[in-house]
Every structure is written in structure tokens, then in C-alpha cells.
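Section: protein folds

Sequence with per-residue C-alpha cells
===
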Amino acid sequence: MVGTIVSAFTSVHLYRLPPAPSAGRRQAERAILSGNLVLTGLAGLLAAAFMPLLGASFAAWGAVPLVVGSVAGLHARTLASSHGDMARTAVIPAASLAVVGTALGVEAALGELPSVSLLLALNGLGQGAAAVLVIRRLSGPRPADFGGAARRRWRVLARRSGWSLVAGAANEAFTRLAIFTVAAWFGAAALAGLVAGQTVLRPATLLAGAFSAASRRPLAARRHAGDVRGFWRLLLLGGGVPALATLGLGLAAALLWPWISAWLYAGRYAGLESEVLLWTAVFVISSFWVAGLVALQALGRLRDLALAELGGALVCGAAMAPLLQSLGPQGALVAMILGGVVQVSLLARGVRRGLRALGGGAVAP
């Protein structure tokens, strides 16, 4: 959630910049990075202040560098994807995986139980170190600007960030509401069953994430070139291919669930075929949601994005309680499907408006 808030004020504005290198783009990047660093530092201080409140059972001081490193890594990934540099986008998670994996291997070799706080800290440090390298490579040895002009730009960014903050908050509510309501209503075991059905579909969702990272620069280029048809083609390809892959994997997982339950979960979580199908519908819809999200960011239509996220969250929230009452834990997934349909419909309307504003004539695919 900290990453969502900080990105709403800073990193998300990188997607609005013209893709071609220029002095103006470099100045904007430097001001955005300096604002991001200030907010990231504040987030680390707040995490440190909050940690004693958790008590001995839950306080993990390694979460402080995790917060700082994760937010820095998120900005570096956004910067790299806005430059169209997918290799450097992958450096940050790869560094985290390597550092944490090495620590786990060393602890296992020594016969020690994993240290949660240590692993959290190493995760953050790995992301942070990789983020520094990526930012310096893409923006030069002095990538941040804290001068008067940059501070004036911060105020402009803050004024433009209201809708992106609303969008981020609504999306957090939409994606996390089911976790808290199912656990509170039916207990942790019911939530575990939902998560078990979701986990097998995660590989297909990587396609949507890959489109999100790889398409931002091409979509921005088509926007600035006024290429409405090219924009639509890329957008529908990026939504349709992940959706079809998710649908295929979901149907196969539901068909093979008795074998998956026996092999992957040692016989636990039998009979989750209906949950897998519902999750499939959720992720198919989310494939088009990702495409619409990226498109509206590239078009700079943050108000339309926020209204779509807010509409989906409100529908999901309103439907959650009655559906949980009537359908049990599966009702949470039905509520997410209803909210997702509203989201995608509103996102599509926002994209049509944005492309029509480019003067490209008829924009509906």
C-alpha cells in the first residue's frame, strides 16, 4: 500500500512523458525521482516508528529496509519500462531472488531455521541496490534534482496526483477486500482454500504483467504519434492473449484438480473445481483490466482510471456481504467478477474518450 501511495504521487507520471529522449524528459525524471526519494525516506521512518507497536511476536525490523528497498525498486522498474528497457526491469526482482535464495541456502546448510527479519532486510537491500544501479544507468550519475525548479514541479505533481491516488486506493480495496472478509467471516481455513485454487493460475497472469511492463512505451509512442488504430491493436492483443492463456490454464486446472490436489497439496483442498473456475473468470477479466489500466496511464486519463477503479470497488464491496451470506466463501469471487466487469467497462469507455480526444476519428475497435 505504501508503494501504491508513493507511486501515485511520483512514478506513475513517468508514463505520461514523451518516449523519445529529450532535455525536458530528463528534467522531469530528475524531479520525479527526487520527490520519490523524499516520500520513500518518510515511508521508512514511518515503518520504523510503527514497528514497536506490533509487539515482540510480530515486530520484524527487517521490514524497514524492505519498505524502502521495495518502493525504490518499484520506481526503478517503472523508469526502466517507460524507457522500454525490459532487461533492466527484470534486474530488480532478479537481485531480490538471488540475495534471498542465497541466504536461505546458507541457513539450510548451517541447519538453522530461516530468519524472517533477516530475509526481509536482504530482500529490501537487494531491491534497493539494484534500483540504484538501474536508475544511474538510465538517468546518469546525478539522476535526482532537489533544486527550486524541482520543488516547484513537486507541487504540480501533487496537484495532478489526486485521481491516481484515488485509483490506487480503490484498487487496493478491490483486490484485498476478499482476503479480510473471508478470513473474518469463515476463518483462515476457508481463506486457505481460496488461495489454493488461485495459486495454480498464477503462471498465466504473468502474461498480463509482461504486457503491462512491455507495452507502456509503445502505447505512449502511438499516443504521441496519433496512431489510434495501432493503439487499439496493441491494446486488444495485450488483453486478449493473456485472457485466452488464462482461460485455457483454468479449464485444464479444473479438469485435473483431483490430481493437482493429490500431488501439489498432498491430498488437501479436494473438490475445489468450482473455485478454480471462478478464479479463472476473475483473472480473465483482470487481463483486460491490466490492458485498460496501462492504456489510460499512457493517455494521461487518470480521472477516467480513478472512476473505473472506484466503480469496480464500490460494486464489489456492495455485493460482497450478501454473496458471502448466500454462497459462502465463493461469494467473494463472484463479487470480484461483478466488480471486474464494471471496471473493464468503465476503462474501455475512458480509452475511447482518450483516443477520440486525439482527433483520430472513430476509435471503437
The chain has 15 helices and no strands.
